[in-house]
Design a protein that fits this description.
This protein is mainly α. It is built from 7 helices and no strands.
């Protein structure tokens, strides 16, 4: 909840009313989850992941996987990451947005400035990867075309 920018109450816990506004899941149900009287269902975790993913910059499938682990619904050992994350590799745009969100929450320091420079380099690397992917696709298309003409 904190990673999604949900403010803390005076008791230092994430505000369940704000959480309810974002996810549609009632504070009474969240209270039962916290106290251990009830465990969230996979469907509830999916709803939470879909609602919080845009705020955290995470892929919803990956966030749901993490929530399932945190809720004791699966262990890292018995289950792999969702196929949408592991097969396609990490979504660089999501990772960069997530890093930017975290940097924006920190006070300015020399270390933060260094991290922001690294973020700029990461964006450049992402853009270079996109260009390389486009070039590879163009070359493959051209090879297919010349192969078809040569047959």
């Amino acid at each position: 909840m904190i990673q999604a920018g949900i403010p803390l109450t005076s008791k230092g816990r994430p505000n369940t009313m704000v959480f309810e506004d974002i996810t549609g899941i009632g504070s009474d149900r969240v209270s039962r989850w916290r106290s251990g009287y009830q465990q969230p269902t996979i469907d509830s975790l999916r709803d939470v992941a879909n609602a919080l993913a845009p705020r955290t910059g995470d892929d919803p499938a990956h966030l749901q996987w993490e929530l399932e682990i945190a809720a004791g619904r699966r262990s890292r050992v018995e289950q792999r990451e969702p196929s949408s994350v592991s097969r396609a590799g990490p979504d660089l745009d999501l990772i960069i947005r997530r890093i930017k969100l975290r940097l924006d929450q920190k006070p300015p320091t020399p270390e933060r400035q260094e991290l922001e420079l690294k973020l700029v380099r990461a964006r450049r690397a992402r853009d270079a990867k996109r260009l390389a992917d486009e070039l590879i696709a163009e070359i493959e298309t051209e090879l297919d075309r010349t192969t078809d003409e040569g047959s």
